[in-house]
């Protein structure tokens, strides 16, 4: 169970780093770039994926390329959501992306619906409304935050759908992650060099160090989640629910107690509904 706790902590600390980045003068696109350098190297060293499967004619290169674009893209969107809407609401929106993933599983991948999953889906949609509601900030800021939250919700769901496509093609997840991380780093590095040469943003050691730390935590979240499933192979639903509920609850505590984020009554109702929705969906997978 300690792997699960470590995964939850790493996930929330990623949001904390994104929250602190503007205060430290960190350029988010640069940090995200170096994050994928760290993730690529750590994947190669610790996951040790076999790349033979990528030589198959059935390798879903289009989905892998989509992941390489979507992964850094959602990182930038998540940074905007944390900045505009706060850690509490951003982490809830991130975890509720499973609603769109679940709907896609029903429509595209032939997964069977049941009462538990449908109930969780319905409560989750209500939770999105509650979490996205204004929390006492100005109207313009609230509108901007709402847009970022929807971006997080849709973006993480897109990544999950792409991962399902890769899995359906028979490509091992570790190999898919390594290739996606590597391509994402190359694409992002090209963008940063263009920004540097045009004078829009200078490459600095501070951004490099911050990005490597971000990558360490981002990869730690993935690694410990995988280890948790390996340690408890007969309890996938328990791990799924514990991970998502843990991130929602710890993110809420950190956002409110550490950063003093304000939440409205509707936000708190949405948070409670999110926890219940995740639990119902996990129950439906048993």
Task: Please characterize this protein's 3D structure.
The protein has one domain (2-284). The mean pLDDT is 88. The longest helix is centred in the middle third of the chain and has 30 residues, at 139-168. 79% of the residues lie in helices and 0% in strands. It contains 11 helices and no strands. The chain is mainly alpha-helical and 286 residues long.
- According to DSSP, the number of beta strands is 0
The average pLDDT score comes to: 88
Biggest pleated-sheet summary: none
Query: Rg, please?
Result: 19 Å
Based on secondary structure, the structural category is mainly alpha
Shape: globular
Low-confidence stretches: none
Instruction: Tell me the series of helices and strands, N- to C-terminal.
Output: HHHHHHHHHHH
Helical fraction: over 70%
Strand content: under 5%
Q: Tally the structural domains.
A: 1
Quickly count the helices: 11
> What is the distance, rounded to the nearest whole angstrom, between the alpha carbons of the first and last residues?
19 Å
Q: What's this model, at a glance?
A:
Its main location: membrane. The chain is mainly α and 286 residues long.
Key phrases:
globular; transmembrane; AA-Vitamin_Transporters; 286 residues; Membrane protein; mainly alpha; membrane
Helix-strand layout with pairing:
Layout: H1 2-20, H2 28-47, H3 61-85, H4 87-95, H5 98-108, H6 115-132, H7 139-168, H8 173-197, H9 205-231, H10 236-258, H11 265-284
Helix pairs in contact: 1-9, 1-10, 2-3, 2-8, 2-9, 3-4, 3-7, 3-8, 4-7, 4-10, 5-7, 6-11, 10-11
């Amino acid at each position: 169970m300690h792997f699960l706790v470590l995964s939850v902590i790493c996930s929330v600390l990623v949001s904390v780093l994104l929250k602190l980045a503007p205060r430290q003068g960190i350029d988010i696109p640069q940090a995200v770039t170096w994050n994928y350098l760290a993730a690529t190297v750590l994947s190669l060293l610790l996951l040790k994926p076999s790349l033979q499967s990528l030589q198959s004619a059935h390798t879903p290169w289009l989905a892998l390329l989509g992941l390489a674009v979507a992964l850094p893209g959602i990182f930038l969107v998540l940074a905007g959501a944390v900045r505009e809407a706060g850690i509490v609401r951003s982490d809830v929106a991130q975890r509720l992306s499973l609603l769109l993933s679940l709907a896609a599983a029903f429509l595209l991948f032939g997964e069977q619906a049941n009462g538990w999953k449908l109930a969780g889906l319905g409560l989750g949609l209500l939770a999105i409304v509650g979490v996205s509601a204004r929390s006492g900030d100005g109207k313009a800021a609230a509108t901007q935050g709402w847009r970022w939250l929807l971006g997080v919700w849709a973006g993480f769901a897109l990544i999950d759908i792409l991962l399902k496509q890769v899995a359906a093609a028979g490509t091992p997840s570790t190999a898919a992650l390594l290739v996606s991380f590597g391509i994402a780093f190359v694409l992002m590095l090209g963008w940063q060099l263009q920004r540097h040469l045009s004078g829009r943003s200078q490459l600095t050691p501070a951004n490099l160090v911050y990005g490597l730390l971000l990558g360490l935590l981002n990869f730690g979240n993935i690694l410990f989640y995988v280890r948790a499933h390996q340690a408890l192979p007969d309890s996938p639903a328990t791990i799924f629910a514990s991970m998502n509920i843990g991130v929602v609850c710890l993110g809420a505590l950190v956002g409110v107690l550490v950063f003093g984020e304000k939440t409205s009554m509707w936000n708190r109702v949405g948070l409670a509904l999110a926890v219940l929705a995740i639990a119902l969906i996990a129950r439906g997978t048993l």
